[in-house]
Amino acid sequence: AAKHAGRHQYCFFRQDMKDQLQDHLMVLQGIDQAIAESQLFLEYQPIIDLQTNQVSGGEALVRWNHPQHGLIPPGRFIPIVEDSDRIEALTLWVMRCSCRALRQQILPQAPDFKLSLNVSGVALQSDRLRDGILEILLREKVPPQNLRIEITETTMMRNVEKCAETLRHWQHAGLRVLIDDFGTGYSSLSYLTTLPIDGLKIDRSFINKQLPGSYCPVVEAILALSKSLGIQSIAEGVETEYQLQSLREMKATHAQGYLLGRPMALEKLLERLGEIEVG
Ligand code: C2E
Ligand code: MG
Ligand code: MG
Ligand code: MG
């Protein structure tokens, strides 16, 4: 029986490796064409201000509509692109596309809207990307205060000095950042006071643990931390009324999640602007 199981495991392992290899090839061979031929597109997920109960911003999330493989979620291709130099081109594409949407369609309706976009900490190591982001900001005439760069805690900590340098450079242009998936990495808390950080996005895994009868001290600790730093706290992955209610009671400033709106097409987001939310 052991021999049998062993052989099975071997097969699964091989299949898994084969899939990974195929994903790598598909992504790296296709990404340039995807950018050039508009196979990539953005969806926008609303972010709610818990004081006004209105949409105060949104997060741009990239998707890939592959001609052979169909819709590919970012979790399947971003990590692969991040390990190649193509992450630069992808990030600049996302920046250009979201800045256009912001200036041409969102801001005319909602002048205070904050659009956040994800920039990999890996991409922050590149001076070309650092300058490319600022060029697009100027060329697309987007007020920097309407934009937020989300950087995950883990990719930022991989090279905190270089990331800090880029962020300080951007700070002069008025750009500010949110720390994404906060609580999952190992941050030195000292950088929170020295970098242009506008808020902490509390990772979904902690919000998930907020169930009736079970209390998640991490959420409350992050809320206390952001409060004492005088920055925003955005709860990610809010799926239930119970979670929303407890976040309100704990004075979180913003929330995002399927309960409040799934990632959606730009047109749908525009319909949500100015709408009063329930709750
Ligand atoms: P993230 O930046 O933490 O984005 C939030 C993810 O959580 C999104 O997944 C979103 O659809 C999902 N989500 C939001 N609310 C809920 C909820 O209530 N429940 C659950 N289960 N999930 C929820 P998505 O779009 O698949 O993106 C995954 C990750 O891919 C993002 O995590 C981000 O790290 C990365 N990503 C997405 N777009 C970009 C991009 O343009 N550039 C870079 N560098 N990374 C990106
Ligand atoms: Mg994000
Ligand atoms: Mg996140
Ligand atoms: Mg994430």
From TrEMBL:
Domain EAL: 24-277
Protein name: EAL domain-containing protein
Source species of the chain: Marinobacterium rhizophilum
